[in-house]
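Journal club prep — side note

Before the paper discussion, L.F. wants everyone to see what a predicted structure for a comparable chain looks like in token form. Sequence:
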Amino acid sequence: MLDQLRGRNLAHVGCTVGLTLGLLLGLIAGIAIIAITQQADAATTATIVWFAITFGLGALGYYLGGTLSRRLWGDSSETE
């Protein structure tokens, strides 16, 4: 499997995985916030948490995927 990925930038793969996990975990956290607090502004808080988790995990996945790409394949600027 590693040979199929050789030379590809894994930052985009990491971003996709991070965004998918962020959407799922953010949704679960939002539902939990609404169920636990049961206040008038719970939906606003849940939405903010959902966006923060989604974008945070997406950015983390992009960073980790880029770092993993450089570690596995080396820096592309070195070869050119």
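L.F.'s comment for the group: The chain has a mean pLDDT of 85. Keep this in mind when we get to the figures.
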